[in-house]
Design a protein that fits this description.
Arc Repressor Mutant, subunit A; Alpha-Beta Plaits; 5-stranded antiparallel β-sheet; 31% helix
Length: 245
């Protein structure tokens, strides 16, 4: 274990850490562990423990990484140290893909699917959660078994296009429970809004109320969904992101 310690001064951070060799995927890597102590009062907590570890083959590079931060860091500096700009690799993307498909999968099963042992896999999942890549877990409900519903896509055009016009419209539309999606788009109209209601009467009442509220709607066109031929609940993360890495 190679260690490094910096004396804590008022208003300056201290880094405690070291580097050691660990075995992962049948290869030896240098692993840097870092801990930051912060003594100046402000927006940051007194103690920040950096979640996760940095892997590589260059021990000196890792020790230089541990030695950074001798002066008082700015907010952006601290955000960098705490890993908010985390760069994902192919294994991270694979983990996200599998969790999208089955959020209740066990860690052992997930580790097997992404070709990791259980402990490193769990560390990666916790890191993804801490850095905001995983925002939560939810159940997929078969709405058709609950009863009939109506799905409508609505093209909405605003009269004016100043910043406060968009803000006024959005502040109202986000409070409508039947609105499940709202997209600002290019083309001949401004917003594409997706409504899910019990029926056509309820949808008409919602639109009439929105027009009466005078939130800047100039015109709208409604497109009722007759049948949803393809509905995917997860994104093709592998195809989107691994092709650029």
């Amino acid at each position: 274990m190679v260690g490094l310690r910096q004396t804590v001064a008022e208003g300056a951070p201290a880094l405690f850490g070291g580097a050691r060799r660990v075995r992962q995927n049948k290869k030896w890597h240098w692993r840097a562990m870092r801990r930051v102590s912060w003594r100046e009062p402000g927006d940051y907590p007194r103690m920040v423990v950096l979640d996760g570890a940095a892997y590589g083959h260059d021990r000196l590079a890792l020790m230089r990484l541990l030695a950074r931060g001798r002066s008082s860091p700015s907010r952006s500096r601290m955000e960098g140290l705490t890993g908010r700009a985390m760069k994902l690799d192919k294994i991270d993307i694979k983990i996200l893909c599998e969790l999208q498909k089955n959020g209740r999968i066990s860690n052992v099963e997930l580790a097997d699917l992404v070709n990791l042992s259980a402990s490193p896999c769990l560390m990666r999942v916790k890191k993804l959660q801490a850095d905001g890549f995983i925002t939560g877990y939810s159940a997929q409900v078969d709405v058709s078994r609950l009863g009939q519903t109506l799905t409508v896509f609505t093209e909405i055009t605003l009269r004016n296009h100043r910043q406060n016009d968009f803000a006024r419209f959005l502040s109202t539309i986000e409070k409508v429970e039947s609105v499940v999606e709202c997209h600002l788009v290019s083309g001949g109209y401004d917003y594409l809004v997706k409504f899910v209601t019990p029926g056509i009467t309820e949808y008409q009442m919602i639109m009439e109320r929105l027009v009466e509220l005078d939130i800047g709607i100039d015109k709208f066109f409604s497109f009722v969904v007759l049948k949803s031929a393809i509905v995917k609940v997860h994104l093709p993360l592998d195809a989107i992101f691994n092709s650029t890495r």
